[in-house]
Design brief:
By secondary structure, the chain is mainly alpha-helical. 55% of the residues lie in helices and 11% in strands. It starts with a helix and ends in an 11-residue tail after the last helix.
Amino acid sequence: MRKDQVAGVLVRLGLFGLLWLVITEGRPGSWAVGLVFVVAATWLSLALHQPPGWRLRPLGLLRFVPYFAWYSLRGGVDVAWRALHPRMPLNPGLLEYQLRLPTPAARVFLAGVLSLLPGTLGARIEGPRLIVHALDLEQNLPEALAELEVRVADLFDLRLTGGKDD
């Protein structure tokens, strides 16, 4: 077991022990049963824990937040403009985009924040393919999706696979 794993086990044991102490109001006699439950809760929490498959990079987050805020505002204005425009300039449809993000967790995150691009929504992920619903297929969506994918990769410290960045 690595040092960080041992530390994780000790932290969980401590937290579950503290919880037992609070629940039993500190009664010393409760530890005969409490020790079994603390160890069982620690083991169960470790058995059920699934690592996310990526790590958040603080510098990537500092770069992503302004990007997200700007494109969220821009996307909202674009959709409002289309809805209020007398001719409603729409050309809706589905677009298939080949993802280069290596992990499923990062792909799901990208699909979730995709709505920040003007008039877009992640409809489905099928392995390395993302199906995008767009209000206007005449926009340059593949370029915008590639830029968003680079930002998400930077946020989670991932290397894109396939394509020009490989």
